[in-house]
Specification:
Elements (H helix, E strand, L loop, with lengths): L1 H18 L6 H15 L5 E7 L14 E7 L4 E7 L6 H20 L4 E8 L14 H5 L4 E6 L8 E8 L4 E2 L5 E7 L12
Parallel strand pairs: 3-4
Antiparallel strand pairs: 1-2, 2-3, 4-8, 5-6, 7-8
Helix pairs in contact: 1-2
Length: 197
């Protein structure tokens, strides 16, 4: 099912690229993807928006985040989808937020979700191309595997996330300046390489 969800999301971005449809913000991305998933998924599967993780996990441990952007479920199996659609710069902060989303998906899998999907759409080349390739930028601009402890790159904070999986950021074109990245997160042994589309 996780692969099917990823395939539908990939088809969405190919349609966006071919049609010139514009994605203005994360809410629009969430709505459009949620509606498309509802239409394309097999009978019996539902898509839920912005649900607290606690509504699926009886005794909830401390998680990186509290709410799940999209939940795909047939009532017995659950898949989480986390989305990003940055439009206000904040490049290093957003990159760290991406790491938090991936860690959150890993945590959800540890407590019973069957899998997760991370999806990002950007229209700013500073997320994927130009600028520094040091620190957190190396993961997004130069192909360094995203894994292990990633520290918050700005401010006085000592915040960090620990990614158990290893992820390769593989940007796909979506129009002239836009790019997207779809990352499957599944219950894989430490050090394995989850599939990035």
């Amino acid at each position: 099912m996780l692969q099917l969800i990823a395939t539908i999301v990939g088809q969405f971005f190919r349609t966006v690229s071919e049609s010139g449809f514009e994605i203005y913000n994360e809410s629009e991305l969430q709505h459009e993807l949620g509606c498309l998933l509802r239409k394309e998924l097999p009978p019996g599967w539902r898509v839920r928006f912005e649900l607290p993780a606690g509504s699926f996990i009886p005794s909830i441990p401390r998680l990186t985040k509290k709410e799940i952007d999209l939940v795909v479920t047939d009532g017995s199996q659950y898949y989480a989808v986390e989305l990003k659609c940055p439009r206000q710069g904040r490049h290093p902060e957003t990159m760290f937020d991406i790491c938090k989303d991936l860690a959150f998906l890993e945590e959800l899998i540890e407590v019973g979700f069957r899998g997760g999907l991370f999806v990002i759409h950007v229209e700013d080349a500073l997320f994927y191309d130009r600028g520094s390739t040091d620190g957190i930028y190396a993961y997004f601009r130069s192909g360094k595997p995203l894994t292990g402890i990633v520290s918050k790159p700005t401010g006085q904070s000592t915040s960090a996330v620990n990614l158990r999986g290893s992820y390769d950021v593989r940007w796909q074109e979506c129009g002239q300046h836009a790019r997207y990245w779809i990352q499957l997160v599944s219950n894989l042994p430490l050090g394995s390489d989850p599939k990035s589309l």
